[in-house]
Amino acid sequence: MIDYYLNFADEAAANAALYTTVIAPEILADNGSIITPELTQLIPIYQNIDTIGVIFKPTGAVDGEGISVLTAVAGWHVNVRSEKEIFDLAEFQVNPINPVRIWA
Fold it and tell me: Within its chain, how far is the Cα of 97 from the centroid?
């Protein structure tokens, strides 16, 4: 298995790269008017997708109550596991020294 650690600009960018969006077709009502359902479904392109989202890391500072102050790491983080190489995701791939979450 090959593990990919990915960082996208935001959730929308991740969804665009990892999913196909299927929009429900319009329906013709009995009176002839068109009903457009607001249903969309994300269909995964890859078999194993683990969405992490925003990752928070300690800044080294502590607040007034002794709690570590955290800061968000830029981007929207997703892990993908595949049996074969995925060249389409190369531009989003990062190589964290200590990944926040890994595949078991």
Answer: 20
